[in-house]
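Two records follow; treat each independently.
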Amino acid sequence: MKTRILVVDDEPSFTHLLKHSLETAGYYEVGEENHAGHAVTAARSFDPDLVLLDIMMPDLDGTEVAARLKADHVLRDVPVIFLTALVTDDEAPEGFCKRGGHTFLPKNVRLEQLVECIEEHLTHGAPTSAGAR
């Protein structure tokens, strides 16, 4: 069974590209939601193992979406990784940065780094090879 990832971002072209890239990698089934206000409903319906979440969205800020996901009794344990243009390559020299207990990836992260970060979150911090879950 493939790992289920929900991508929440207001840019449909970005979510489509990410979905294609992750599914082509062969390890994931990816759902898309382009309206932050619908993210909890989409997550409830899709039942993801992990959520990739943009921060800057017009209808609702990604941090508020994350708070709503964590407040939902069904979704509270689903890991969230912020995938955002607010993080620069300089701030994330290894492909990601951690602040306040959250992981942030720049939107231009390499697929290999994204997969590594996803797998790390799915195994609760223990690095693994992609798909070894």
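The next record belongs to a different protein.
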Amino acid sequence: MAWKPDLTVAAIIADQGRYLCVEERIRNRAVLNQPAGHVEDGETLVHAVVREVAEETAREFVPQYLLGIYLWRDPRSLRTSLRFAFVGVAGERDIARTLDEGIIATHWLTREELLARGSRLRSPLVLKCIDDYLAGKQMPIETVSCLI
């Protein structure tokens, strides 16, 4: 049987020590995550992260660099995710646009506020990405290239 991790993207969007997060309902539980989601068939990683931010936050997103590539296995579902996290800037929210199904709200939260809500984080990747961002980790966006 072939092993196939879920291919996902996430956006790290910082503003004055706060990070744009989405509160979403997953399996009847409200959790906090970065704007993130699955890469769709035929989509580049960069296009996927721009689309996911728009769908989940109603904001335009301009990725500036690749933060990192993360492999994580959910101990509850045993599903594995391969996450490409991008850092960039987001525009103002388009109030005329509705948020994606399952998104409850968006929040600007500090690392400390997220840490205090640890049991509500969708995965350990939420804090890991912020810690890597704070550590100054970055790779050129051209690190990921797609021949689609």
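Discussion point: Helices lie at 45-57, 111-116, 125-134. How would you locate this feature using only the token line?
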